[in-house]
Write a structure and sequence with these properties.
10% helix; mainly beta
Length: 284
Amino acid sequence: MAITRDPLDELVVPDGTEAKEVALETAGDILVGGRSTVEFGVRGRNVIAGEGVRFGGDIEAEGDCRLDMFCEVASNVLVGQDAYIGERVHVGGEMKVAGDLDIGDDVEIEEGFEANGWIVIRNPMPTIVFLFVYLKHLLLIGEEDAAQQLVSELVDDEDTPDAEPLVIPRNATVGDDAWRVSTPATIGSDCRLHGNVRAKSIDAGADCNIFGSLRARSDVAVGERTRIHGDVTTRNGDVTIADEARILGDVSCRNLELGPEAEVDGTIRADGEITMRTTEREIE
């Protein structure tokens, strides 16, 4: 994972991510900033959550799981390697850990826990919040190599080095109804998401299916062959709709650019220019 800035200042949904009925699934790591709410369960490689994060379903981590203090998990926590659980974490189901379990004080696991490795009960680690504050400090003073090494130790895996992490910024809400963040949002290709996306700006990749609307304060870009099952709206920005993309709703923006064979089923409201790009064959 290459890093040149605070990793929690943007919503990043990597290629191939799916929001299924009960879980948000991705091939790589999952990083969740403090005080966020994830109404789904999550399934990924390593799962790292900051202070006070709430999960509405199971956590399934193929690798490690790190939950900072005051986290809440509605159901089970299943971990393929080691688990690090901070103080006053509450788990509504059971916890199963294939490796070691490092657990803080006043942790409540309603249906009990088991681990195949060592079980240590103490305050297991510096807070995740501290780690990211330290990371941000390294970046501010220009120590990008040290920052890269820190992130690699936390989330990288030599077996799957190319899997980009799913990043949910601080104070976000992610669920079937809406994905609400105050940061930019980047959605990769081949994603299938449910819920309206609300962000500072939105960049959706190719071949996605998003069952909800897109609304941003600045620019919105929709990738090739992507379908948006709702409106696309920006308060002060431009909208770009790539080739063969389809918006099953209205578009409201400052300037609009439409690629070849892009479709808008609803009403277009543009304060500025509407540009329709053509294919090379049409130009000839």
